[in-house]
Amino acid sequence: MKLRLLLVVLLIANAGYFLWARGDLAGFGLAPAALSEREPQRVARQIHPEWLQIRKEARTGAPTP
């Protein structure tokens, strides 16, 4: 009986780790560090990131294949 209980506990722990590692438990606040935001200090150091504009470059000449 104790061996069955141990087996069930190990299976539940294994399934829990599998779900946690895939990020399926992120809705409960249990996300692994690999899925969380990395280096948030870079975002904090930006100066007016909303001013950034992406423009198409004007080309003079034939297009390259």
User: In terms of per-residue confidence, which ranges show pLDDT below 50 for 5 or more consecutive residues?
Assistant: none
Q: Work out the helicity level.
A: 40-55%
What Rg is obtained from the alpha carbons, in whole angstroms? 25 Å
Q: What about the largest sheet?
A: none
Global mean pLDDT: 82
Report the principal-axis shape.
Answer: elongated
% residues in beta strands: under 5%
Report the count of strand segments.
Answer: 0
- Helix and strand content put the structural class at mainly alpha
Distance between the ends: 72 Å
Count of alpha/pi helices: 2
State the assembly state of the protein chains.
single chain
In sequence order, what are the helices and strands, one letter per element? HH
Characterize the structure shown.
It contains 2 helices and no strands. By secondary structure, it is mainly alpha-helical. It has a domain at 2-46. The chain is elongated and about 80 Å long. The N and C termini lie far apart (72 Å). The model has no long low-confidence stretch (mean pLDDT 82).
Keyphrases for this structure?
42% helix, 65 residues, 0% strand, 2 helices
Write the SSE topology:
Layout: H1 2-22, H2 40-45
Task: Write a concise synopsis of the structure shown.
The protein is mainly alpha-helical and 65 residues long. The chain has helices at residues 2-22, 40-45.
